[in-house]
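Summary for the steering committee. One of the milestones for this cycle was to obtain a three-dimensional model of the protein with manganese (II) ion bound, which we needed before selecting residues for the alanine scan. The sequence and ligand used are listed below.
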Amino acid sequence: MPKPILFASDLHLSDADPATTAAFLAFLHTQVQTASALYLLGDIFEYWIGDDDQNALNGQIAGELRALAKNGVSIFLMHGNRDFLLGPQYAAAAGATLLDDPFILNAFGHKLILSHGDVLCTDDTAYQQFRATVRQPAWQRTFLARPLAERRAEVERIRAASELAKKDKASDIMDVNPHSVANLFVQHTGADLIHGHTHRPARHQHDLAQGTRQRWVLPDWYGGEGGYLQLDETGLSFVGINTNATWR
Ligand code: LP5
Ligand code: MN
C-alpha cells in the first residue's frame, strides 16, 4: 500500500510553548515515520527573524526534519505570515524543499491547492497592506542586514501592534473571503484546497459553476493540541493531536 501524505500548519513553535514542541516531536516520531511526505503549510514557527538566528529550538527542529528526510520522508515547507523570512539556508539544514504559495499537488487521484491562507483574507486590508510591504525582496534584504537583536526588537513591536489591531477587527474580516477562494478554485480546474492561518479547522464545501470543491482548514497547535490531514487511498481525513477530533 502506498504510504500516506501528511499536512499540518500553524504549529507556532517557540521556546515559550514547550507543550507544542513536545506534541510536534511526538508526531514526527510516530505518524510521520510511516508517511511518504510531510507538508508544513506555514507558521511552523511563532516568528522567524532570519536563518542566522541559530537558537537551540531551530537547530533541534532542523535536525529532526533532516533525520526524517534521510529516512525517505520528503519534507516540504511553505511560508506563513510569521515565518516568511525562513530561507534556503534553513530549508537545506532541514533537508526540506521550500514551496511557493499556492502549490499544486497531484496525489492519490486528487488535485490539491496548498496554501498558508493569509493571501485569501482579502477583507483584512490593513494586513494585506502590511504583507505587501514585508514581502518585498528589497525590504527583506534591508531587514535581514540589521543586527539580530534589532530585528528581534522590531518583531516584538510588530507583534504587539498586530495583537492590538486584531482587537478592533471583526472576526469575519480575519477569515478567508469567499470570492478570493472562488477565484483560486477557478484558476485550478478540479482542485480542492488545503490551508491554515485562520485556526478554524473545518471542511467547507464551495459550490461553483464548474462543480463543488472542498476547502480543508487546518488547526493551530498552540498548547500542544492540534492535528493534521492525511491523504491516502481512502482520500483526506483529519486526525487530532491530543484531542479526539477526527473528521473527513
Ligand atoms: O499572526 P496572527 O494570526 O496573530 O495575525 C495575522 C496578522 N498579523 C501578522 C503579524 C504577525 O503576527 C507578527 C509578525 C511576525 C514576524 C515577522 C517576521 C519579520 C518581519 C519584520 C517586520 C519589520 O501577520 C494580522 C491579521 C491576522 O493574521 C488575521 O488574518 O489580522 O494582521 C495585522 O494585525 C496587521 C495590522 O493590521 C497592521 C500592521 C501592524 C504592524 C505595524 C508595524 C509597522 C511596521 C512597518 C513595516 C512595514
Ligand atoms: Mn498564519
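Key point for the committee: The chain has a mean pLDDT of 98.
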